[in-house]
Amino acid sequence: MSSSHGESTQDAAVGIPEALMIGTAKANFDKPIDYSTVADKVAIIVGGASGIGLAIATELVRHGALVAILDINEANGATATRELLEIRERSAKFIRTDVVSWDSQKSAFKEVLSWARNRIDIVVFSAGLRPNNIREYLNPSNLGTEPSAPPTTTLDVNVTGAYFTAHLATWYFTVIAREQQQSALIVPPDSAIDVIIPPFRPQLLLLGSLASYYDQHGCPDYGASKHGIRGIWGALRHDTADFANMQVNLLAPGYTETPLMEPAVFASLRDNGIWVADTTDVVAGAMRCLFDPEVEARAICIARNFDGVPGSGNFDLSDDPNEFCGGREVLEHYRAGSFHRVAGHRENNS
Question: Does the keyword section mention NADP (predicted)?
């Protein structure tokens, strides 16, 4: 097998820089975040009409950002926008968007550019559907039953939607940077772009899951989709000099309590000793990725905090080849009781 440049896959592998194997510096969660950089930034939250996406949008608006919510649910979108506008006038816009449609997403991005005077600084993909348990489709009533096609909606939204969003973000970040440079006469219009790093670099944040690292038993569509999002992140996070020097990070929440989680599900998880994070823990992780310039090409796991401080349970997954691509961190935190009740570890916390 050969690459598009004619070199063999083996040659390409040998030529991988050691820096890519080692990765970037781990996130420092003790470092204060400078929220002054949020003011007047233009953010797109795909899937931002409810749950984690809305929580991130709300925090951005509180700190002075302009937020466009792209979501298919018009009722939730209208409610979310109204709530955001109550925090600050002219701070939010809802655009009905079908994330599995390329044309719908592209049209929405163009509408944001028109609304925000040709600026996009932040793109967050938080859209997602729940898993389908394969056992529900592999229980034929009799041996003569023909198999029916399994649902693909979770794959469509979680992977195809994320892929379209990442492509559009990368495209528009690059185009906007070129236009800004040309207007400033930094380079001739037909020259190769040597991007100058601005004080705030464009941000692409993808919402994966602990299921991006840990097997999702019986739910291959969800497991595949979250590994797919991780794959998109991994493919884009290193070569960002070609794309306006954007920063690409990944959030990997475990179970998280949101308005979408049914009370019975939350109670069942709690009764079985599974720790459930709060949306504030996810928001803290998102703000760390978006507004700490030293957090670059990192994957952050969102785990429940046990001290009442949002985000204090979060940790860097060390998702780099020399660190076993996150596997060691997940195993160590699993054994330490970060995700579930373990004898001798936090068993008295409710």
Answer: yes
Task: Decide if 5 is inside a domain.
Answer: no
pLDDT digits (tens, 9 = 90+) for 240-263: 988 999 999 999 999 998 876 788
pTM value > 0.90: no
- Please answer whether residues 158 and 222 qualify as being in contact, where contact means their C-beta atoms are separated by less than 8 angstroms: yes
Q: Is 95 exposed, middle or buried (0-12, 13-18, 19+ CB in 10 A)?
A: buried
User: Using CA atoms, how far apart are residues 163 and 229, in angstroms rounded to an integer?
Assistant: 8
Q: Is 94 in contact with 80 (CB distance < 8 Å)?
A: yes
CB environment 307-326: b (16+ within 10 A), e (fewer): eeebbebbbbbbbbeebebb
Residue 263 lies in a domain: yes
CATH code of residue 327: 3.40.50.720
Residue holding tokens 């978006």?
290
**226 labelled catalytic:** yes
Q: DSSP 3-state assignment of 346?
A: coil
Does residue 46 lie within any of the structural domains? yes
Identify whether 222 is a catalytic site residue. yes
Mean of pLDDT values over 197-220: 89
* 195 lies in some domain: yes
- What is the number of domains present in the chain? 1
Segment 207-231 mean pLDDT: 94
User: Among 71-80, 159-168, 173-182, which stretch is predicted with the lowest mean pLDDT?
Assistant: 173-182
- Read off the amino acid at residue 257: E
Active-site entry in 93, 172, 226, 255: 226
Catalytic residue, from 213, 214, 222, 255: name it: 222
pLDDT single digits (tens) 124-150: 999 999 888 888 877 766 667 788 888
Residue with token string 């019986």: 218
Cα separation of 125 and 205, whole Å? 6
Close Cβ partners of 103 (under 8 Å, ≥ 6 residues apart): none
Range of the domain at 104: 29-130+150-336
